[in-house]
Amino acid sequence: MKDITIILFERIGLLLIIAFVLTRIPNFKMLIYREYNFRMTIIHACVFGIFGIASTHFGIVLADGEVVNQNLVWYVADNEMIVSLSLVAIVIAGLLGGPIVGLGAGIVAGIDLFFLGGIGWFANTLVNPLTGLLAGLAGRFFSKARVISPVQALFIGVFPPILQMQILFVIYPQHDTVMEFVNIAGLPLVLTNSIAIAIFTAMIKIVLQEQENEAALATKQALTIAEEALPFLKKDSPTERAEGLAELLYDRLKVAAICVANEEEILAFKGIGADHHHVGNKIRTRLSNEALQSKEIKIAYSKDDIACDDPKCRLEAGIIIPIVEANDSMSLIKFYFKKVHHISPVEIELAQGIGQLITNQLQVISSEKLRKNIVDAELRNLQAQINPHFLFNTLHLIATLFRVDPIRARHITIQLANFMRFNLGIASESLITLDRECDHVKAYVEIIEARFANRLEINFTRDHTNSNVLIPPSTIQPLVENAIEHGLKQVTTNGRIDITIKNRDEERIQVTVEDNGVGFDEEAIALFYARKKRENIDSGVGMYNVNQRLTSLLGEEAGLQIEKMSPNSGSRVYFTIPNKSLRGNKNGN
Amino acid sequence: MNFTYFIFFVCIVVCTLIITYWAARKSKTTIQFYTAAGSLTGVQNGMAIAGDYISAASFLGIIGQIALYGFDGFLYSVGFLVSYLVVLLFVAEPVHHLGKFSLADVIVARFPNQHIRWIIALGSLIISVFYMIPQLVASGLLIRLLLDIDYTTSVLIIGSLMTIYVVFGGMIATSWVQIVKTVLLLSSTFLLSLIVFSFYSWNMTDLIAEVKLGTPLGEQFFLPGHLLQSPLEMFSLYLALLLGTAGLPHILIRFFTVKNGKEVRKSVLTASGIIGFFYLMTFVLALGAAAVIGYDTLVASDSTGNLAAPLLARALGGDFLLAFVSAVAFTTVVAVVAGLVISATTAFSHDIYHHIIKKGNTTEKEQLKAAQWSAFGIGIISTLFALGLKDINVTFLVSLTFIVAASSIFPVLLFTIYWRRFSQAGAIIGMLAGLFSSMILLLIGPHIMNVENGWILRDPVISLFNPGIVTIPIGFLSAIIGSYLFPDDGEFDFDAFSMKAQTGVDVRRESR
Amino acid sequence: MEIFEKWEQERRKFILKMTIFSIVFFLSLPISIGLFPEFMSQPRFGWLSFAWLLGFAQIGVTWLLCWFYWLKAEQLDELLIEVKRQLEAAE
């Protein structure tokens, strides 16, 4: 009995080595993840059945109580009995896959034993399916966990060989060979089977644990990246943002290269291939466009998909992640890999996760900015509401007019009231109709004209436009105010301001404020375009605020444009708004 | 010691200890310790009950009785099974609804009184301990057969093992050990029966013929009357068996481990299904033992035929099968004994310690400690007893337990649940009367007072081996008389109580 | 609580019937063997005598009666749900 025990342990050892190697292969690993569809069940049953067959052939053959065949079992004579290790695989099949998988695997292994023959062939054939079924049921009963614990498996593994021996007795009563067989091989089988099953179960648990760990790590990584990306995402300059992001991603992920781009061109590139993937290169590949259109991740599986012009480019695969910004403009982040098999489900999940997180971050950031601007505008409006200088001067004007031209004085008083009332109402709405804004401007203009009657001429022209076109409140008036306070500060006569609103084309309406004053100097224009805000109360601040609100609510194209008009000097500030009246404003007007 | 046996022995021991460890990690509060926190399903509980019930004395003893004496042995099986109907019809659900941890809780739900608790606790303690002793004795014999260790050592091993279980595992461990053991027991008896049939080429007549050859009774084998001397004995025994189960504390407390009445019923149904099936198979095995081994060999190994099953296994399947069957028997013993220790522990630590000694003022932790200590103590006591009772007849002690249970606890339980006029005094008197009458009659009966080999070498006063027919009516009558002589003051709301007992619906609590 | 009384009545009737039947049927085994030993012990079908048949029958009948109880209890449970509902409503 001792000899047999040792031999069986050796054979079991071989089987376990093969099993372990199998669990390192990624394809086999996928098999272990339990899926409840019919096809998977069949596949599982077959795989384990084959393993069971292999186990049988790794067994030994007994004749007259002596071990016959030392090598693999190929043939069993009629007076010999096979000591098969197939029950290990079958029990594992049952424990892992449930009763049906166990049954199926058992049938496969049983058929093999059927054909091998020898004494006790019927018992062997019968016990495998039966064990598979029972093991599956026992597994379900003992543990609701995904995989039974090795210790419980150990206990369960003791019984299949016992069952086998008893079935042998039932089918072959009073049989000396069988009796001898049980005496010699019974205990060794029990021992080796249960230990093998326990070890196998432990192995499978480790594989599952690995998968969970990988997933956990990937998630952690994605979250860390999103957090670290936050300072970069907050930056206003798209180039700075892109560079910071690219740097961070390249540093943190195991990729060959990172590319950050907007809809038109590359904004940043880091990694292998930086020599020919330049900032400013246009985005042209089919896959990139698909990604932009569908707003879904696209994966480039070959060099063709990447479509790089440089034949020496070492990048062969990539993942393209579209990022949607708050105002529906898009960016792309691309992960590049040297070989296509570097892309695993983990990488894809990671890419998706990062894409989603960054999109969310950007939306949060922009709505924060909008909120700040609105708060800012509110503050300014509060200021404007009680702008003492304006009020003082206008009242003084009214007082003067009172005696000279009472009708005009009354008129100016009413306009002042309108203007103030309008200012009071600004805070609550983010968009109003163009008509209302024009009324606001006109009220202001009338007052100004009355004040600076000799020095200033203001023209207001308006095309016949759609009356429900929307515009943020207090966008035109500040421009006029700005023109007066800065542009025409030094001018004493013949100052002129032209305010025009015209249909530029079917889609857009342009609002222009021109003056013939000193104009903006180059530096100021540059600063304005570089989106740097000046903290002091200056022409920059009010304009900046108007610009921010225009771009946030109506898109980039609605931003302020500043031009210096030469040769006359003077400045021209204009912006375009969409000629759409269908966009409801945020307060449900 | 044979190598084979040793390996098997170690294997099973290790596995059951592991289950205990697993349960120990979960068993941290008293509720869990006592009643597995309602976590068992009806079927699982039923399997555990079956495991609790089919003791080593059943598995080993009955097979021996039938193999030696034929019909009379079979009567034991039938009686054991039918008693479950009594349990189901009358006591199972009410016990579940009325009590929480121990049997005394159930009675005290009606009579909140220290004395009652005392007596009931004492009664259940006695019954549990006495039931335990034949188990230890039987296992001692078994281990002695298999491993050639001497009796004392084997009893010590079993005693300490089961104490360890209960101290660390509480009810969950024993429940699961019992469930596992039930599966083992059933499957191995089933397979063994198949082997017996196959041994005689599936020919029933051949088997019967061999049986008649194997026993000195020959053709008479199948006639009743070989063991039980008179019809009165037969009736007396049968009655005690029928009513006894419904008074066994270690079975009744199992009804606390499920969560509602329906699961209780399921438990009983499952248990009776399993037990019935089991006894049918033991019948086959007994026939096999008579045929294959023969009367003389059986008696030679143990005078009461206790070792019939293992010997049969060895004859049919060599040492391997012998080792397996013995391992099953061993697990059986451990499981039953553990169950008994739990109920005895409950009686002591919950009823006596918590309620009586400490007057309800203990923390959960203290209770748990007390429970564990009492488990330890009871384990020690019964082991010591078993050591000193080597040559006792195991069936005697089992029947004592049934007679005591049927005479003392069963009447009191029945009246508590169903009889309006039952009084506190009636309970006390009934219990004491039943207890004492059964013990005294057994003492002066032929088991103890036997000219040849009894403890007291004189002619017995009563010739009944099974005095149930006398003691059971005594129990009932004294309870009735006690209630009429000393009635309660009538302030008890029997209707509400009855409703709670039958249905679990507590009228007082519903109005919140 | 009429529903509860109804429940009690039904249950009582059922239990009574079962009990009477059980007492008669089950105790008939030892009683009949005691009163008519020859009649009961004579082997009828091979080795089986009425005593044996009755013994085996008792196993089967026990199962049967348990099952009857189960069915009846399910019925009674339905009534019980109504009882509980009424109790809760009465607050």
Would you give an account of this structure?
The complex is a heterotrimer of chains A (about 600), B (about 500) and C (about 90). In chain A, about 60% of the residues lie in helices and about 15% in strands. With about 600 residues, chain A is α+β, with helices and mostly antiparallel strands. Chain A folds into three domains: about 1-210, Arp2/3 complex 21 kDa subunit ARPC3, CATH 1.10.1760; about 235-360, GAF domain (Beta-Lactamase, 2-Layer Sandwich), CATH 3.30.450; about 385-580, Heat Shock Protein 90, CATH 3.30.565. Chain A has a five-stranded antiparallel beta sheet, with helices on both faces. In chain A, strands 10-12-13-15-14 form a five-stranded mixed beta sheet. In chain A, strands 2-1-3 form a three-stranded antiparallel beta sheet, with helices on one face. In chain A, a hairpin with a 6-residue loop joins β14 (about 560-565) and β15 (about 570-580). Chain A is rod-shaped, with a radius of gyration of 41 Å. Chain B is mostly helical. Chain B contains 20 helices and no strands. Chain B has helices spanning about 5-25, 30-35, 40-55, 55-70, 70-100, 105-110, 115-145, 150-200, 205-215, 230-245, 250, 260-295, 295-300, 310-355, 365-390, 395-420, 425-445, 470-485, 495-505, 505-510. The longest helix of chain B is centred in the middle third of the chain and has 50 residues, at about 310-355. Chain B is globular. By secondary structure, chain C is mostly helical. Chain C has one domain. In chain C, α1 (about 1-35) packs antiparallel against α3. Chain C is elongated and about 65 Å long. Classes of the chains: A alpha+beta (about 600), B mainly alpha (about 500), C mainly alpha (about 90). Chains in contact: A-B, B-C. The interface of B and C includes residues 89, 230, 276, 280 and 512 of B.
